[in-house]
Amino acid sequence: MLSLYPPAPFEAAAKEAERKEQDRNLAELRQSLDKEYRESIEEATKGPPPATVRAYEAVYGYLPRGWPPVPLQSGQAALKALP
């Protein structure tokens, strides 16, 4: 419903605080995902390729695109920010 009155100052402050909390949570999530991604890349490259990758190479004669996995560059995020 459309209100004839502007929002009260405390409502605007509450919405701003909620937005900042969501931004902090999203930043923490991205940081956590990036760390897990880097660790999974390190783990994947320690041993031999998975069976599916070896089978692909046996059939086609070359490794599939994306193998070996490439670590993220500095400042690059595993997940891109939404517009």
Q: Which features characterize this protein?
A:
mainly alpha; 2 helices; 0% strand; single chain
Proportion in β-strands: under 5%
- List the uncertain runs: none
What kind of sheet is the major sheet?
Answer: none
Taken in chain order, the helices and strands follow as: HH
Helix run count: 2
The shape is: elongated
Approximately how much helix is present in the residues? 55-70%
Class computed from helices, strands and strand pairing = mainly alpha
What gyration radius follows from the Cα positions, in whole Å? 22 Å
Count of beta strands: 0
Mean pLDDT: 83
The N- to C-terminal Cα distance equals 28 Å
Describe what this molecule looks like in 3D.
It is a single chain. The chain has 83 residues and is mostly helical. The protein is 58% helix and 0% strand. The chain contains two helices and no strands. It has helices at residues 9-46, 51-60.
